[in-house]
Write a structure and sequence with these properties.
The protein has 331 residues and is an alpha/beta fold. The chain has a single domain, classed as 3-Layer(aba) Sandwich (Rossmann fold), CATH 3.40.50.720. It has nine helices and eleven strands. The radius of gyration is 19 Å and the shape is globular. The relative contact order is 0.13. The model has no long low-confidence stretch (mean pLDDT 92). InterPro entries: Epimerase_deHydtase, NAD(P)-bd_dom_sf, NAD(P)_dehydrat-like. Pfam families: Epimerase (PF01370).
Length: 331
């Protein structure tokens, strides 16, 4: 059978379901790690014409992947997407730090046991490349490939609500990214390792089936449109379909091991977002009235050099996102 064998964790998620399609489109085979047979069936239903190129491994806890001997047997490329979500959990260590650190180290350790592995891609977040107080600074320029280590205090007092959730999520991502760096330096693996750092990922979902299932950044953007308050985060967004295409491109791209690849879409602002929605979706009765504001920016030098992506126009991304949500909320 032609093509490489690509292993994907978090395969039934927002990004993962798109990545499966892009990897299959490139002529490869996939082995997906999913939490249940139900999730495996979801993937089969999304790609019924490629069932002969899709395998599944049931892994209820990705941090325990080391116990699943043979999960990576014969695999050429590994994409590690699985990890905690901002709105899932409350305890810093249990819900945000341990799962992402253990999951990352497990996938690296298991990959080191297989001679067939050529490249491991760890999907982190743009927040792992900025200090904890960077999340409340705007404007703020996020740098990549500097080797800078950010200090975190696991015993600090976190604010209530979404701000606290974001900081806990960021803490986990920072700690895991540093643990990954330390592991690579110590283990000196034979395979290449690349980390990917998407900004806030939004767009049409392959897994959302109803308005009640709206979540993640999509939820944030939808709620913001219908609120009178200020936006809860600077506008630094990337289309989920672009993230998937960028990840799939890494298979054939020549990227130096250890490179950090940020991913974000064309520059845009909350005011432009609100204006577009008001002009093109009058039935939404958009309440949000943003002022022009400074926002985050991020160093895309390495990404542009090694992936040479053509990013979807932000208006096209917003349209695809809103079209789907309007249909769900009318149903």
């Amino acid at each position: 059978m032609s093509g490489h064998l690509v292993f994907i964790t978090g395969a039934s998620g927002f990004i993962g379901t798109y990545l499966i399609g892009d990897v299959l489109k490139a002529g490869h085979r996939v082995r997906v790690a999913v939490r249940s047979e139900e999730k495996a069936q979801l993937i089969k239903e999304l790609y019924p014409s490629a069932l002969d190129r899709i395998e599944s491994v049931i892994v209820s806890d990705i941090s325990q992947l080391l116990t699943f001997q043979g999960a990576l047997k014969g695999v050429d490329y590994v994409f590690h997407l699985a990890g905690p979500m901002v709105d899932k959990g409350t305890d810093l260590t249990r819900d945000f730090v341990d799962p992402v650190v253990r999951g990352t180290l497990s996938i690296l350790e298991l990959s080191a046991q297989e001679n067939s592995i050529r490249k491991v891609v760890i999907v982190s977040s743009f927040v792992s490349l900025m200090p904890l107080d960077g999340i409340v600074r705007s404007p703020f320029h996020i740098k990549a490939n500097t080797g800078e280590r950010f200090v975190v205090n696991l015993n600090m007092d976190f604010p209530e609500g979404l701000p606290g959730q974001l900081l806990k999520y960021q803490t986990g991502k920072i700690v895991a990214h540093q643990a990954y760096r330390d592991w690579v330096k110590k283990a000196n693996p034979k395979f290449d390792v690349v980390t990917v750092h998407p900004s806030q990922v939004f767009g049409p979902s392959l897994v959302q089936k109803s308005a009640d299932e709206l979540s993640g950044v999509n939820y944030l953007m939808w709620v913001t449109l219908h609120s009178n308050g200020p936006p809860m985060t600077p506008f630094l967004m990337v289309d989920v379909r672009d993230v998937s295409r960028a990840l799939a491109r890494i298979i054939d791209a020549v990227v130096p091991s250890g490179t950090e690849l940020p991913l974000t879409g064309p520059f845009h602002t909350w005011k432009q977002f609100a204006s577009f929605a008001k002009a093109n979706y009058p039935s939404l009765n958009v309440k949000f009235d943003a002022e022009e504001e400074p926002t985050w920016t991020i160093d895309m030098g390495a990404t542009d050099k090694f992936l040479a992506m053509e990013w979807t126009a932000m208006e096209d991304s917003i349209e695809a996102f809103l079209d789907q949500q309007v249909a769900f909320f009318k149903a």
